[in-house]
Amino acid sequence: MSGESWKEIPIGGVIEKAGNSKEYKTGSWRSNRPIHVPDKCIHCMICWIVCPDCAVKAKDGNFSHFDYDYCKGCGNCAARCPKDAIVMKTELEAQKEDEK
Amino acid sequence: MSAKRTPRALTGDDAVGEAMRQINPDVVPAYPITPQTEIMHHFAKYVANGEVDTELICVESEHSAMSAAVGASCAGARVMTATAANGLALMWEIVYIAASTRLPIVMNVVNRALSGPINIHCDHSDSMGCRDSGWIQIYSETAQEAYEHTMMAMRIAENHDVLLPVMVCQDGFITSHSVERVDVFEDEDIKKWVGEFVPKYTLLNTDNPHTVGPLDLYDYYFEHKRQQMDAMEKAKGVIKQVFSEFEKFSGKPFDFIESYRLDDADTAIVALSSSCGTIKDVVDDLREKGQKVGLLKIRVFRPFMPEMITTALKSCKGVAILDRSASFGGFGGPIFTEVRSAFHEWKEKPHIINYIYGLGGREFTIKHAHQVFNELEEVKKGNLGIKVRSLGSRE
After folding, report:
1. A3 contacts in B (CB within 8 Å)?
2. Alpha-carbon span B364 to B171, nearest angstrom
3. Were B166 and a residue from B68, B153, B344, B366 both cysteine, which residue would form a disulfide, CB within 3.0 to 4.6 Å?
4. What is the rounded radius of gyration, in angstroms, for the C-alpha atoms of chain A?
5. How distant is the Cα of B223 from the closest Cα of chain A, in angstroms?
6. Domain made up of B5-250: CATH architecture
7. For B177-207, what is each residue's pLDDT tens digit?
């Protein structure tokens, strides 16, 4: 496990800087990954509304991309998409496709 | 020159209430009914009379008492509380959180049995159960010691190399409700000795806001535990320092252990708290008859001092460890397992047996101490017999 030694970190779990939760990349918890299907998307932005982690990114009022640093893979977006424009794949499957 | 003191007739509870009054902590959260002891009864009176500036928070349970103590300590307050027995048990979850959040809370524990069956009398099962919670534990033989330990505990806890909570223990009823002579220092001297608390972090510091008690998973939790182990190691040096400063202040020597007539002892008893007074009487009696016996009193059980303890017992051929708490299904009580393990590397070591005694307030008298020293005569020859024995139960 990489990271700082016990000698370097503040005691008692104190976090000395404010506003640092963005440094915690909760995307590492994900076991299922939402994949956007642009051909089917009507940019209704329901995914943007239901995402509990603000991991659906919009640009000019349209769907832009998923922020996989913070997406925990809960699948809310895919479940609520009226056009099946978001499909859930397992991380293993998605990573294999990334490698191709 | 040592500080002025005035002799008074006080119970252990009175003595600690007096210590708290003199320390004048910022916040004291407490649950105001049983299993709380008279410590809080006295202290509440001082608050009501305006003799202290303390914010006394009467909460709805002991779990809330420790929770409020944690909150106040995070805010940077000097915090004290007191509890006993099942009260401590109900605090359990937060007792660990206080230690791991590194909050220098001082808590007086009046050692009493854990129910059930329902019992309110002395044994050490309450504080022994949380010996691994990360709190420093100091055990008091007398009301005088409970008073003095409380003063020292404040300084130990708040030292920035330590920042750990401290439990000051005294025996329920035997010490807490019995009147003894207690020499009380002057208010001004104690105020100076205890000094101002300088918190390392305070939630009220709005210029540098910080977070306490965050989620701490497999990536950092272990490192925080490692720091707690280190703080306990550092506490050994700090406790030594505070003992020596208190000696300068009071003229009275203190150490992690007290060796009583151990120098050339053949057999010895190891014990905590009030029983030590009884054993000292028996040691004197047997010494007069020419028997080489002694007592090792453990004052500081956490951090544990293995080398100091084994060295003190080095002349002994037979040692009896007295545990006032049972570890059901374990190999003896907690003091036994640790002292015995401390001897592991020694080539020439004493034969060591364990007595579980005094549970639920069962009396421990000179008769029992005599019995132990008698039985040690066989044990020291290597005839151990039953290694974990029961002392004072009807067989």
Report:
1. 219-220, 223
2. 12
3. B153
4. 17
5. 5
6. 3-Layer(aba) Sandwich (3.40)
7. 999 999 999 999 999 999 999 999 999 999 9
